[in-house]
Amino acid sequence: MAPRLRICPQCHHFLKHQPVAYKYLTTASAITPAAPPIQMTSSPPPIARYPRNQPPSHKPPEFRKSQLHRQYTSLLRSTPLLLLFQHNNLKATEWMSIRRELHSALEKVDHDLSTNLAPAIKIQAIQAGIFESALLVAEHYHPEHHRPASKPHPTDPSTQSSASLANTTRNPADPSLTHYLSRTAHDAAAPFKKHHPLRPLLSGPLATITFPTVTPQHMRAALSILAPKAPTFAAPTRRANPGYYDASVQHGLQKLMLLGARVEGRVFDREGARWVGGIEGGMEGLRGLLVRVLGEVGAGVTGALEGMGRSLWVTVEGRRGMLEEEEKKRGGEES
Amino acid sequence: MITKHITEVTTRFNPFTKPSKTCRVFLAHLPANARTTMKINTTVLNRDSQEPSFLALKFNVLVEDGKEMQLDTEKLNINDVVEEVDRHSRVLNRQADLAGN
Predict the structure, then answer these.
(1) B15: which chain A residues are within 8 Å (Cβ-Cβ)?
(2) Pairing state of beta strands B54-59 and B39-44?
């Protein structure tokens, strides 16, 4: 039978190797294609009431407060070294010039150590109350210790519609939600509300400077700019860095006050912060010092343990020498 | 807070104690150009220091006889301190007005 639909002669060679398509083409008007077998056995997954990347949170997520909380939590979890300052009515130009000086000092350290940390070290003003809450969540909430998210997840395409799901509704109290804004996180941090050692510092206008790793060299550079104290943290000389003696920088620094530091979860005061910044040679220097101390201890221990044996050996050798000498004398007398 | 009659601020506190908040917030209440119009001495104590915090103010000598004000920040909160300072500053304001300055 001749094809019912006319096919242009140029297209004919496309159909030559596809006899099935050719056949469908002939009967296209009569047959509706069946649904694929996967849709016959399982229906589409149930609809989650929220997108996967926007789970319900304890406080409304569209508020600036919530987003700041999230930002501070992530900042605190990623920074092992943090300096806390109070800023008393600094002007925008003063902030700007202080940031400029800080950046140039840090870049100098980067250049000496051939690292690239200066762009990641930032001074920023924080909201004390939200920061305190974020600090508690970052320290006391460990999502891995809480119940994992219920499986199967509603937005996962492999989930079957018959599966019973916990979190298809917008309910922030759902314990399967374990993100840092969740009610689970809030409840885990709430009992520690009044006991954090940094708590008395967290009032008034505050600014933090955060370091991505514990680097005493960078910290020393930052302290010598922001809170200079001779001799370890001497401010740069007027000849070395004339920009530091600009009126805007100096007026700004008078109003910036170092309060404390948080190093790897431990809280330090001003002197403690300066002690951390004053570690010679940075972490490498500290490790070298530790190795040296341990080596000395080892030498001392081996010396002490050897001492007994050695003195015994010396005594016995001395006695043997004496006996040998006596024998020689006796042999000489006999002969 | 009326700060234009203050000529000297001396304060000392241990930031790891609760009463230090009064001193710190008082410093934050001073205007941005305070360092040019008055003398500010701040001592930040160490964490284990037991010394009580205090705040001492001196007022303008020209208008009055340079009153010195000692504020016990262990007991007063920032609102009380502001109230005290304002009460005295208003008197100085009135005297300055009457003197025609």
Answers:
(1) 200-201, 259-260, 269
(2) unpaired
Question: At residue A6, does pLDDT exceed 80?
Answer: no
**Of A268, A283, A298, which closes a domain?**
A283
Q: Which position has the higher pLDDT, A158 or A58?
A: A58
A223/A272 Cα distance (integer angstroms): 12
Contact B27 A272 (CB under 8 A): no
Q: How far apart are CA A142 and CA A161, in angstroms?
A: 32
Q: What's residue B69's pLDDT?
A: 85
Query: Residue B27 class from Cβ within 10 Å (0-12 exposed, 13-18 middle, 19+ buried)?
Result: buried
**How many Å apart are CA A262 and CA A85, to the nearest integer?**
12
As given in the structure block, the two tokens for residue A51 are: 């997108």
Q: In terms of domains, do A240 and A92 share one?
A: yes
CB contact under 8 A, B20 and A200: yes
Q: For chain B, which domains are there?
A: 6-98 (3.40.30.10)
C-alpha count within 13 angstroms, C-beta hemisphere, residue A6? 2
Domain that holds residue A222: 64-148+168-283
Q: Taking CA atoms, what residue in B is nearest to A260?
A: B15
Is A298 buried (19+), middle (13-18) or exposed (0-12) by CB count in 10 A?
exposed
Token code pair at residue A117: 């940390």
Q: Which residues in B lie closer than 8 A to residue A91 (C-beta atoms)?
A: 32
Q: Which residues of chain B have pLDDT under 50?
A: none
- Report the percent of chain A where pLDDT is more than 70: 82
Q: Residue A10 and residue A195: Cα distance in Å, rounded? A: 83
With respect to residue A129, please indicate whether it lies within any of the assigned structural domains. Answer: yes
Which residue in A84, A85, A86, A88 has the most chain B C-beta atoms within 10 A of its own C-beta, making it the best mutation to test that interface? Answer: A88
Tell me whether the omega of the peptide bond preceding residue A152 falls within 30 degrees of 0, making it cis.
yes
* Helices H / strands E in chain A, number of each: 11, 5
* A272 in any annotated domain: yes
* Model pLDDT, residue B28: 93
Residue A21 reports pLDDT greater than 50: no
Q: What is the mean pLDDT of chain A?
A: 83
